[in-house]
Design a protein that fits this description.
Blueprint lengths: L6 H13 L9 E5 L2 H11 L3 E5 L14 H8 L3 E4 L8 H8 L5 E4 L15 E2 L2 E2 L10 H18 L4 H27 L5 E4 L5 H7 L2 E5 L10 H14 L3 E4 L6 H10 L2 E4 L13 H16 L2
Helix pairs in contact: 1-3, 2-5, 3-4, 5-6, 6-10
């Protein structure tokens, strides 16, 4: 559960309101997103008609992000706030309430998307399993649904530029379709598509492109793996000949390195968030990077 905002934080926020105005282009729709992937979606659709910032750049932990006074100010001055939902940003509701922006358009992009369960990343609330895996954007078909929702809300706020938003959306969706087809063609040639995942961010990605996640180092968000679980993974890797362990740049690399030393499997670093690694500044470049890295590592 998110921690209540302290009086110190509120005071810092009030000072920020006085001192730090939002650096927005004139006559644009001001959008704040929780994650950099959402920032990229908004930028691709809104282009010159939006000023968009992300609270999380890519290297922070979206599950346990600590709010800052500048976040409250940004949302207070925004026209639109875009989130994933699905239990990922447990702090987002508190942020919206603290910003006290009565005209804010809040977009929860997981709306209407079927969440995968039993993937090792079920998010909980009050001790009960209430959410599925929230890493929906790693499947481009889910991304297309999220993009359409963003486009609809931008048009609601700025009907004067409706034609531009729709044209940009159509162009972007075509780009995603072309990219998907290319990735599937490349992956299809790969005989062994199995890997161990450090953090269970990859089931949507694996399902879409034909990879197989054999196991996860971290079974549940926020829980360290037990010695028994790690021993089971070592035995599984040795028995099945798994060659690759997929980690992410924001995660502690100690355990993947231990597993690699024990089994000979190679640790590779992918990213679930644009901008977290060189050459991944956009959603599409991130997908290309991840697939190319996996193909290079898994190829015979």
């Amino acid at each position: 559960m998110a921690k209540p905002i302290s009086y110190t934080l509120i005071l810092a926020f009030l000072l920020a309101v006085i001192v730090f105005p939002v650096d927005a282009k004139p006559d644009t729709t001001i959008v704040v997103t929780t994650l950099s992937v959402l920032q990229d979606y908004v930028q691709q659709i809104g282009r010159e008609h939006v000023t968009v910032t992300s609270l999380i750049s890519g290297l922070e932990n979206g599950h346990s992000y600590a709010l800052k006074p500048s976040d409250i100010l940004a949302v207070r001055q925004a026209h639109m706030f875009v989130t994933i939902g699905a239990g990922l940003e447990v702090w987002a509701k508190q942020l919206v309430e603290s910003a006290q922006n009565s005209t804010l358009e809040v977009v929860v992009t997981s709306k209407g998307i079927s969440l995968l369960r039993n993937t090792g990343s079920i998010h909980t609330k009050g001790g009960k399993h209430t959410f599925g895996n929230p890493h929906i954007w790693l499947d481009p078909e889910n991304a297309k649904s999220m993009i359409r929702q963003i486009t609809t809300r931008l048009i609601k706020l700025d009907r004067a530029n409706r034609r531009d938003y729709l044209a940009n959306q159509a162009e972007y969706l075509r780009e995603l379709d072309t990219l998907q087809a290319d990735i599937k063609r490349r992956v299809k040639k790969l005989p062994d598509r199995r890997f161990i995942s450090h953090h269970p961010a990859w089931p949507y990605f694996a399902r879409r492109f034909g990879f197989k996640i054999v196991g996860n180092i971290i079974e549940h968000s926020g829980a360290e793996p037990s010695a028994k679980h790690l021993s089971t993974l070592v035995q599984q890797i040795k028995k099945t000949g798994i060659k690759v362990i997929v980690s992410e740049p924001q995660l502690n690399q100690k355990i993947p390195r231990i597993l690699s030393d024990e089994t000979g499997a190679r640790v590779v670093t992918l990213t679930a968030m644009p901008g977290a690694l060189p050459g991944t500044n956009t959603y599409t470049s991130m997908l290309r990077f991840n697939v190319s890295t996996l193909l290079e590592t898994l190829s015979p």
